Structures are given as C-alpha cells and as structure tokens.
Amino acid sequence: MKEFELIQNIFQASVMASTQGRGDLLLGIGDDCAQVQVPLGQSLVFSMDTLVEGRHFPFDADPVDIGYRAVASCVSDLAAMGAKPAFFTLGLTIPESDPQWLAGLAQGMAELAESHWFGLSGWRYHQRATDDYAASAWLC
C-alpha cells in the first residue's frame, strides 16, 4: 500500500483524524502539514518522542501497544507542563507497509487520543529496507 492509500484507508478512517467540531484544526491529516488556529490568549506546548524497536519496545511487540505508548509518552510530558493535548502528528519508519500492523498501530493511538479528545493532524511515513521499526509522535 502506498502512503496516501495508507492515510486514507487506515488513519483518516479513524475518529482520531476527524476535524468535525474542531475550530482549532483547520487542515488535518492528508499531506505533510497541518494548519492550526490557536485560540486567542492561549499558547501551544509541544512534546516529541521517538520509539525505536529493540530499544524502546521488543521486536515482537504488539503494534497496538506501540501506538498507545508512542502517544502516551508525549501526553505525559504535556501533563507535566499543565497542558491539555489538542492534536498530534506521527513520524513512522518501517520496513514494509503492512496494513494489518499499521491498523494495530492506529488502534493503539486512537485508544488514547479518542479517550482524551485529541486527534491525529498529520503524519510522515518512510519505508526503509531494514527490519527496524521506529515511531515518533509530536503532541501539542
């Protein structure tokens, strides 16, 4: 599956990618950028973390757990600053575009994002000829 097919079939199909009812997210997932309107009198707090297979999660880890953890590590950073998550972006490097694995990753991210009312606003995907998986999440 190619990048835009993955976006459309796996990530955009999730509730976490919806911009419905969101006045702050003007343009969400679909390309390399998102567009955000910061409410007057508020500021953005950013957090970013990267998880690498073999270092931050075992080689046989469930992709649902990887997705949840990628987002949770940044949510924790925001909470430490007294900030509330609004949306996140995802950077993903994987050896192949396995739709089943990616659906599991999306499910794990969605479990946390949907329960705290924030969503996926953008992503970047790279396929590499390696056996390593890496996921980076930015939260605002």
Largest sheet: 4 strands, mixed
Q: What do we call the CATH topology?
A: 60s Ribosomal Protein L30, Chain: A
| Order of helical and strand elements | HEEEHEHEE
The CA-CA distance between the termini, in Å, is 29 Å
What share of the residues lie within helices? Answer: 25-40%
User: Could you give the count of β-strands?
Assistant: 6
Structural class, judged by helices and strands?
alpha+beta
Mean pLDDT: 78
SS element count, helices: 3
CATH class: Alpha Beta
Radius of gyration: 14 Å
If strands are numbered along the chain, what order do they take across the biggest sheet? 3-6-4-5
How would you sum up the global shape?
globular
Q: What is the CATH H-level superfamily? A: PurM-like, N-terminal domain
Number of domain units: 1
Q: Which CATH architecture would you pick?
A: 2-Layer Sandwich
Note the beta-strand portion.
Answer: 15-25%
Contiguous low-pLDDT stretches (5 residues minimum) are none
